[in-house]
Design brief:
Elements (H helix, E strand, L loop, with lengths): L8 H8 L22 H22 L3 H14 L4 H13 L3 H14 L4 H13 L3 H14 L4 H13 L3 H14 L4 H13 L3 H14 L4 H14 L2 H14 L6 H6 L4 H11 L2 H8 L1 H5 L1
Helix pairs in contact: 1-4, 2-3, 3-4, 4-5, 5-6, 6-7, 6-8, 7-8, 8-9, 9-10, 10-11, 11-12, 12-13, 12-15, 13-16
């Protein structure tokens, strides 16, 4: 599972728009001991958040430009609300405007540097920009703030894997599973790393474990099918491969596999399986016509 999949749009914005967690920061040299926002300030912040909520609705309707413009307007009303910068950063990230996303996340963190979700989002943006050292730094900061964040461990593992630090990647994915034992994406990725290192049986065990947690997870289904095919269990391997591709045919695209951290050995094995008549028939729809 790649970092690209980790830009979970509705979740990130729902977190960003938590009304109970609005954070503002005084721009004064000397901050009063007790901060009591005026009713007018509270009303302004609430109006700004309502605008951002409307921006979310527009984004979900496929109107990203309008959503960004509305969020920018909300920030004119309440520039010191960190969540609004979080929202804007996420909208930029969804549109692959990564430098702007990073700028917005950093501004949000300037206002609220104790928010682990902000560090995760910033790390994902750096990861997408291939700023790997900055991504590692962001994910580590998220873990310091929230040692139970399986997402941060997972993303840190993905980053290490892209840096060719396979052992470090597996260690982080294992920590993600320790925190959340049904988090199959981390289990799946451990399988990817095991396969590339020649530990095929261990990889198979990981993918079987992932499938036991989610029988509709196309990624471990395909990986397991291909591995079994290569080991000689061709009938079972082809059956699992076709199951996976029926669930999500994007996995028939080897470029998509590479994006999702599949290594050279496994991708080459996939290419061989994709050439088989049984898989070709399924992808072309012939198998469906026969049934």
């Amino acid at each position: 599972m790649s970092a690209a999949k980790r830009f979970v749009f509705p979740l990130a914005l729902a977190l960003a728009l938590s009304l109970g967690g609005l954070q503002t920061k005084q721009a004064q040299a000397q901050t009063p001991l007790i901060l009591v926002p005026s009713w007018q300030q509270q009303q302004t912040n609430q109006e700004a958040v309502q605008l951002a909520q409307e921006a979310l609705r527009l984004a979900q309707l496929g109107k990203p430009k309008e959503a960004i413009s509305l969020t920018q307007l909300s920030l004119q009303l309440a520039p010191n609300v960190s969540q609004l910068h979080f929202v804007l950063g996420t909208l930029y990230a969804q549109q692959d405007q990564i430098p702007k996303a990073i700028e917005s996340y950093e501004e949000a963190l300037r206002l609220d540097d104790k928010n682990s979700n902000l560090y995760i989002s910033l790390g994902l943006a750096h990861l997408k920009a291939k700023n790997y050292s900055a991504a590692v730094d962001s994910f580590n900061k998220a873990i310091v703030l929230d040692p139970k964040s399986h997402e941060a461990f997972f993303d840190l593992g993905n980053t290490y894997y892209l840096l060719k630090r396979s052992d470090d990647a597996v260690a982080q994915w294992q920590k993600a599973v320790e925190v959340k034992n049904d988090f199959w994406p981390a289990i799946n990725n451990i399988g990817l790393a095991r396969y590339e290192s020649g530990q095929v049986d261990q990889a198979i065990e990981q993918w079987q474990r992932a499938i036991a947690l989610d029988k509709e997870a196309a990624e471990p289904l395909l990986a397991l099918g291909v591995a079994l095919y290569q080991k000689g269990d061709k009938a079972k391997g082809l059956d699992l491969t076709n199951q996976a591709l029926k669930i999500d045919n994007r996995y028939a695209d080897t470029a998509f596999l590479v994006e999702n951290l599949w290594g050279d050995k496994l991708v080459q094995a996939v290419r061989e399986v994709l050439k088989t008549p049984q898989v070709q028939d399924m992808l072309s729809g012939k198998s469906a016509k026969k049934s």
